[in-house]
Amino acid sequence: MNKILCTAAFLMAATCMPGHAAEVQTYAGPQTVKDNPARIAVFDIAAIDTLDALGIEIDGVPNNLYLERLQTKYAGAEVVGTLFEPDLEALNALAPELVVVGGRSAGKQAETSRVAPSIDMTIWGEDLIGQMRQRILDYGEIFDVADKAQALVSELDDKIESAKAAIEGKGNALILMTNGPKISVYGTGSRFGWVHTVLGVPAADPDIDAGEHGDAVSFEFVADIDPDWLIVVDRAAAIGSNEQNAKSTLDNTLIRQTKAWKSGQVIYAPSANVYIAAGGARATMEVIDSLAVGFSTAQ
After folding, report:
1. Which CATH number goes with the domain that contains 125?
2. How many folded domains does the chain comprise?
3. Worst-scoring range by mean pLDDT, 12-26, 226-240, 261-275?
4. Closest to 112 (Cα-Cα) out of 102, 127, 123, 124
5. 6 in a domain, yes or no?
6. Distance, CA of 221 to CA of 101 (rounded, Å)
7. Are residues 47 and 80 in the same domain?
8. Which residues contact 249 (CB under 8 A, 6 or more apart)?
9. Per-residue confidence (pLDDT) for residue 2, from 0 to 100
């Protein structure tokens, strides 16, 4: 009899015992998250990209993933809204144990939290690489894949070193984004500033303000700076717009006079990776690779 009572007490204690949890660094600060959630919904493309790189199954996604390889991979996943707006009915039907928001969906955390525990894993600002490393390691803790996470960080660091070697001594660069016929430039303190601060690309104009959306400039401005290299992000291509592409926008008399254009030193970065999936592990490593290859062509 005593043995039965003891066994019952043990089982009751085990049932009541709280599950394991991980403390992670979110955009809002430290947050405790139940580890190994059975079903997850993710509204941020960078987060989807990193979780996919870690081999984590994602059950609910937004309707457009922008990166072709992700669009193909998750064609069968449940659509639970858009990049900007969750579909709470669809999310509730999925019944996830964790929701990840970030970037364009960050403001919806309060809404998704009514359905399931939610974390904001936004990556933003000039320290994109540092934040990305932290997100990778945090996902490793949540999903019990710490070894994979560390290996992915090591792969990132190796690619950074290779790119730095390819870039060193090749001249300065101006980061420029086209939006149809319009152009903006970005400096060292901007969201694209990691290209300068982490990869070591000298800025063609150190005085360009950070600016969340860059500084809108004229073609004359670019011609006056006369950079050795142009690193180009095509916003229209990134979002799937039908506006004129970056090559058409830049192929004009003023830009053709620059050292960058004359030398063929114009690098068109993978635009969706930079503009939509910034901070995603694979997406960002693809950008780093593209820059390393581009600078390696210097004459």
Report:
1. 3.40.50.1980
2. 2
3. 12-26
4. 102
5. no
6. 38
7. yes
8. 178, 180, 181, 182, 183
9. 44
Residue ranges of alpha helices (H) inside the chain are 2-16, 45-53, 68-73, 88-94, 109-112, 128-142, 146-167, 194-197, 219-225, 235-239, 246-250, 253-256, 259-262, 271-275, 281-296
Domain that holds residue 228: 166-296
What pLDDT sits at residue 210? 62
Q: Assess if residue 203 is contained within a domain.
A: yes
* Residue 210, C-beta contacts closer than 8 angstroms, at least 6 positions apart: 126, 186, 187, 188, 189, 190, 193
Q: Is 255 left (phi over 0), alpha (psi -120 to 50) or beta?
A: alpha
Q: Phi/psi at 24 (nearest 5 deg)?
A: -125, 160
pLDDT value, residue 299: 59
Residue 78 CB contacts under 8 Å (≥ 6 apart), including other chains = 41, 59, 60, 61, 90, 93, 94
Domain termination site, one of 148, 183, 204: 148
Domain shared by 89 and 120, yes or no? yes
Other CB atoms within a 10 A radius of the CB of residue 296 amount to 13
Asked whether residue 258 is domain-assigned, the answer is yes
Looking at the fold, whether 128 and 199 belong to one and the same domain comes out as no
Q: Closest Cα partner for 91 from 109, 78, 72, 104?
A: 78
Q: 174, 231 in Cβ contact below 8 A? A: yes
Q: What is the sign, positive or negative, of the torsion defined by CA atoms of 217, 220, 225, 226?
A: positive
> Are 132 and 175 within one domain?
no
Span 76-92, mean pLDDT? Answer: 97
Q: pTM (2 decimals)? A: 0.90
User: Do 70 and 171 fall into the same domain?
Assistant: no
Is residue 142 domain-shared with residue 246, that is, in the same domain?
A: no
